[in-house]
Design a protein that fits this description.
GO terms for molecular function: transferase activity. This is Putative gamma-glutamylcyclotransferase. Pfam families: GGACT. Keywords: Transferase. The protein is α+β, with helices and mostly antiparallel strands. The protein has a single domain, classed as Roll (Hypothetical upf0131 protein ytfp). The protein has a five-stranded mixed sheet with strand order 2-3-1-5-4, with no helix packed on it. Strand 4 and strand 5 form a beta hairpin.
């Protein structure tokens, strides 16, 4: 990833509370969209996956200003369930993104429902992960 790119986040990482507990800070965030992609619910978990869909556009945020240690930490957080790709974004921007490699539900992930019902407990799960990942 060059200095001109960012990280396109579309799920739990778009929430400042999650970023803060993982990184110890909230980096710069700007709204972003990726045409040709859809944010899908995943079976049995509260986080989503980004899957290709030529008829859709995924809404998310573009994170900029991550240092190399933060990039490595977020890569470890996403683990091998995702692969990394650079996607074209609206406004001529581009961003690295975590693309889901497994099976997804037929329904879109709902960030409002996540914020209302899952965010608090998810942040605590992230806190535990972060304490164990040094």
């Amino acid at each position: 990833m060059s200095d001109d790119d960012g990280l396109f986040v579309y799920g739990t990482l778009r929430f400042p509370e999650v970023l803060h507990v993982l990184l110890g800070r909230v980096p710069d965030l700007a709204p972003a969209r990726a045409a040709g992609w859809r944010v899908r619910a995943l079976p049995g978990v509260v986080y989503p996956g980004l899957v290709a869909d030529p008829a859709a556009t995924a809404d998310g945020m573009l994170i900029t200003g991550l240092d190399e240690a933060e990039k490595r930490l977020l890569d470890a957080y996403e683990d091998d369930l995702y692969e990394i790709a650079v996607l074209p974004l609206d406004g001529g921007r581009r961003g690295r993104a975590y693309i889901w490699k497994g099976t997804a539900e037929d329904t879109d992930w709902d960030p409002v429902r996540f914020a209302d019902h899952e965010l608090i407990s998810y942040v605590e799960t992230c806190r535990g992960w972060r304490l164990g990942h040094r």
